[in-house]
Structures are given as structure tokens and as C-alpha cells.
Give the backbone structure.
Amino acid sequence: MTGFTNGEEADVELTDIVPFLVEDELIALGANYQKGPNWGSFIVEDGTLITGQNPGSSEAVAKALVAALR
């Protein structure tokens, strides 16, 4: 699973605004959290779950979803 990294949250100055950091929370809950370079396109596919790290991953997530639906 992936999602916004702590570094990306810091880059947009939201670490003190959001109630929790996605990266920290997923790891704390036992998720197999994976990440790529900040702001790069990065997706993780695990069975029927397709997750993207950030808005830059939208196209790759969409392509993976279309491929999964075919």
C-alpha cells in the first residue's frame, strides 16, 4: 500500500495541520507501506487493491485500474 509520504506532507507544510500523517499511521497499523521518491509517480498493486502515492501517480493508477478491469 502507498500514500502521501511524510516528506511530501512536509513539502506542502501540512504536517501540523492534518490530524495524522498517512505514512506514519499506515505503518503503525501494520500495513506494508511502500514509497517511491517524493512527488514521483509510484503505485502499488496487491490483489485488487491499487494505490497511488500522490497526485502525480494518478495516470499510473488509472492505467492499472483499466488493465485490472479488462
In short: Residues 6-69 form one domain. The chain has one domain: 6-69. The mean pLDDT is 96. The longest strand covers residues 43-46.
